[in-house]
Amino acid sequence: MAQRVSASDGGNKKTSRVRVAVRLRPYMPKQDEKDEGPCVRGLDSQNLEIINWRNATETVKYHFDVFHDTQTTQQEVFLSSVKPILPHILQGQNASVFAYGPTGAGKTHTMLGSPDQPGVIPRAVLDLLSPNSQDLPIREDKDKNILIPGLTHTTISSFADFDKHFVPATLNRTTASTKLNQRSSRSHAILLIKVVRTQRAAPRRRQTGKLYLVDLAGSEDNRRTGNQGIRLKESGAINLSLFTLSKVVDSLNSGTAIRVPYRDSKLTRLLQDSLGGSAHSVMITNIAPEFKYYFDTFSALNFAAKSKLIVNKPFTRETVAVPVLPVKRAREEHEAGGSGT
Ligand code: ADP
Ligand code: MG
Question: How far is CA 314 from the centre of its chain?
Fold first, then answer.
């Protein structure tokens, strides 16, 4: 019998948690017309704080599995969030990596990146989307299974194959990513990598593992922002799928899931066998530090947070010369041999 359950699952039908990482992109003066400075900042590798809009003398502190501060490189994000799950896929297990967050916060940068700074997708073993592919309709069969007819499907069985497909895609990536970006606020971009592994010796057992890499639609309320002339029906579908995804993640992470509401949206039905259960899932929540994203950042953090805490301490701008959090800074400087970086 095929061994599907890893040791850490203890042989139970335990649903695994979705690891939650938050990535804060660098402050961009262009995105801050009123010159207000950042309203979010990192504290350490698991915590950040944001100004409390109800009371500017307070901050709200959030705790996550991982926090990637503004200086985190693409390589570091890949090594920390994606590389550790690749061996599970080779063992025939499923996995998914999502980028969540408002438009402009860095989802596409994280997942796709640029030729200079390739993201998670080109760093993982790739199946490739054709740059001029049409929209693919999602269909349902009579058993409510989700099907995507016409999905680009490329078999890669050696590194030479990979290279052959990867190079043309690299050349096309600038155009591809521009096109993706124009549409990404109102559509989910989903890449599925299937790894089929056949044992050399009898009984030549086959194992198939699936990895979904997902650049989600913008989490901002499209109806509120009137985003890119978005049609009401479309924004309703986006809101439903992201709302259902948040319920699914909550339900998996609360550990008390009686019913995980996968069937409430097409997105979660499609991802069902790669999210929770014995699958390994990571959600990278992308946020931006400028005030114009404030409410979208807040709602993205509330979606992603393991816990939050109101801290009675004014948020100090990084431009201020007086060191913020003097006690902690002093300790860090001490530990770092006084380099004070
Ligand atoms: P989204 O896909 O969430 O709408 P993008 O990935 O398009 O956001 O990012 C918006 C802009 O910010 C882009 O110009 C992108 O290059 C830049 N950006 C995002 N994240 C980072 C980062 N970590 N470092 C540098 N630039 C970033
Ligand atoms: Mg995008």
Answer: 30
Q: For residue 240, give the 3-state DSSP assignment.
A: helix
Burial of 237-251, coded b for 16+ CB within 10 Å and e otherwise, reads bbbebbebbbbbbeb
Find where tokens 């025939």 sit.
92
Q: Which atom of ligand 1 is nearest to the CA of 114?
A: 16
298-336 pLDDT per residue, tens: 989 988 776 667 666 655 554 433 444 444 433 433 444
Instruction: Report the complex ipTM.
Output: 0.99
Substitution candidate for ligand 1 out of 25, 69, 292 with most atoms within 8 A of CB = 25
User: Which pTM does this prediction carry?
Assistant: 0.76
**What is the Cα–Cα distance from 5 to 168, expressed in whole angstroms?**
38
Residue type, 7: A
Atom of ligand 1 minimally distant from the CA of 105 = 3
- Look up residue 183 and give its amino acid: R
Token representation of residue 337? 């041999």
Residue 186 CA to its chain's centroid (Å) = 16
Q: Please, are residues 315 and 39 in contact by the beta-carbon 8 Å criterion?
A: yes
